[in-house]
Amino acid sequence: MEFRHLGRSGLIISEIAYGNWLTHGSQVEEEAALSCVRAALDAGITTYDTADVYAETRAEAVLGRALKGERREGLEIFTKVFWPTGPGRNDRGLGRKHIMESIDGSLRRLQTDYVDLYQAHRYDPSTPLEETMVAFADVVRSGKALYIGVSEWTAQQIREAHTLAQELRVPLVSSQPQYSMLWRVIEAEVVPTCEELGLGQIVWSPIAQGVLTGKYTPGTPPPAGSRATDSKGGATMVSRFLGDDVLERVQRLKPLADQAGLSLAQLAVAWVLQNPNVSAAIIGASRPEQVGENVKAAGVKLEPELLSAIDAVLDPVVERDPARTAEGSPKTRP
């Protein structure tokens, strides 16, 4: 495993992080989830990402049980707040009440006294940003989180939050966006802004919900049991990448991966790690062997000629519009 600083902060994290968005507490049984975390630990992964909303809070609880007994100082545990976790009007969003209650719930489920990074899972248009940032600052000053970050915020939202964070003297250090060879919407605005301000990217879905593994092929139905057939496992999100034009071009990446001595999945994870503003790529797994396969992307350097060849293959189907970040966030509190 290789390690990187999270932005310009002093926190060092594994460049491949383990996330349990669509698996723990929902898609796989707990024993399999525990085996996947054990495989991640054995592979040298020290950074674990989750959220209170995943599997209706069950994912945090599973991760807490999986990491119990590990040396806490040797781990970096990240979680998030924003999406609804209960029926009440205040069981959602980034208002002070929800943030202060949610951090306590997350710590209880994770069986830890603090998280290393507490992230705003989306921007809350219904709450003044000042209220949100003061609440996050109080979470940090209470010792319940060491750093704060955001997920799927626009460049302008990040800049405004950073200004308040500086005034409050609270460490805003990261952005967690979707990023892959097919989804590059952060490159035009979010990445330059974060480079300027000192935030690092912790990217999710580096293999485009599995499409960049090559398992989906043009002209054929998705394999049974795959994410594209699971309405609770991200089928809606993966559908954007299932056009035959995209799938045909993904298949054309196979000779390039072979040339680099990598699987398609390893190539995809290694590709996002070539971006110097990326501090970590989040991988998920439903089987332990998937962890071992994907961590082989750590430390891989892709030559400029290979990167150019990848661009030549994928360029017509790559999504680059920075406006897609704002489109993916709710316009009102969910």
UniProtKB/TrEMBL annotation:
Signal peptide: none annotated. Gene3D superfamilies: NADP-dependent oxidoreductase domain. Keywords: NADP, Oxidoreductase. PANTHER family: HYPERKINETIC, ISOFORM M. Residues 15-314 form the NADP-dependent oxidoreductase domain. One of its GO terms (cellular component) is cytosol. It comes from the Bacteria. GO terms for molecular function: oxidoreductase activity. Belongs to the shaker potassium channel beta subunit family. This is Aldo/keto reductase.
